[in-house]
Write a structure and sequence with these properties.
It contains 15 helices and no strands. The protein starts with a helix and ends with a helix.
Length: 301
């Protein structure tokens, strides 16, 4: 509950700081840069190093990749049908395809499933959402922001993406035990992600954009909050027969609202920043209701 209150307060603080012009216009860009270069790499170095593998690891990790693949196909078709600008289609794929499975997802998992569900939530986030953002997300951002980059350019963008570099290093360091001071340092740096990300989103949010972007906003959130988790449920439970708490938590994470970091990447690549930030803000609010409904529906899985 404390984590959720932190998210809400930082989001409101960001809106107020913008409203009363207490921060420079480029403040969100500076916050986003800190998150990409410091906060996210610190979290990768800490949590991937401490991760424990379970028997459901493949399904747990694969979920985020499947959702992103569904998002790419769904919004590509929607973009052609509705004749959407390339930047808008890219924003929908990126923000609609990646869930907020970390600093919003983990507190929600703990609230609904207890501390026993946190380990699964971390695996979903680090091996699933975080890795998918570093590879697929950066690829889509490159394609939709600058036309058609070559394969070499895409590989270069992925390889130079700071969180991806940290991800690779953390995997290599798994056999090495961290010093206590180093783990504490990484945690302190990683803890900056939630407040800074919500401040950034709050500063960039314009309430007038909700009405202006209502069609695309509804399209993105219906997919992320309803269609994507439903598709994963049908695949994992009905088709593959998977069950148990780890699967319930994985399904629950599939229903999370859009990832704030995905919106930051979309903004950095000029992919309809207004839509990306509104999707995050409205998605978080709506997800309090949709997640409760999904939890009730999945109790017997």
């Amino acid at each position: 509950m404390n984590n959720l209150l932190l998210l809400i307060l930082c989001f409101i603080a960001g809106m107020l700081l913008r409203r009363f012009k207490r921060m420079p216009d480029n403040a969100p860009a500076a916050l986003n840069s800190f998150i990409i270069h410091i906060s996210l790499p610190a979290l990768a170095l800490l949590y991937i190093h401490e991760m424990h593998i379970s028997s459901d690891i493949v399904l747990i990790a694969l979920m985020a990749w499947l959702v992103f693949g569904l998002s790419a196909g769904f919004f590509w078709l929607a973009g052609r049908w509705l004749n959407l600008p390339r930047a808008t289609t890219g924003a929908l794929i990126l923000v609609g395809g990646l869930g907020n499975t970390s600093f919003f997802g983990v507190p929600m998992v703990e609230a609904f499933y207890g501390k026993s569900g946190i380990a699964t939530a971390i695996m979903v986030d680090q091996l699933g959402s975080f890795f998918a953002l570093s590879v697929l997300g950066i690829t889509v951002a490159g394609i939709y922001s600058s036309g058609r980059p070559t394969a070499a350019e895409i590989v270069k963008r992925i390889a130079l993406f700071p969180p991806f570099i940290a991800l690779v290093i953390s995997l290599l360091l798994i056999p090495v035990e961290y010093a206590e001071w180093f783990s504490v340092l990484l945690k302190r740096l990683g803890d900056t992600l939630a407040p800074m990300a919500l401040l950034s989103v709050g500063m960039q949010l314009r309430l007038g954009h909700v009405a202006e972007l209502k069609r695309n906003l509804a399209l993105g959130l219906v997919f992320k909050l309803v269609l994507a988790p439903l598709a994963i449920y049908l695949l994992y439970v009905k088709l593959l027969g998977a069950h148990g708490q780890a699967i319930q938590v994985t399904l629950f994470e599939a229903a999370m609202p859009p990832m704030i970091t995905a919106a930051i990447v979309a903004t950095e690549h000029d992919l309809d920043p207004a839509l990306a930030n509104v999707m995050v803000a409205v998605g978080i609010i709506l997800s309090f209701f949709t997640l409760s409904a999904w939890w009730f529906f999945w109790r017997t899985v």
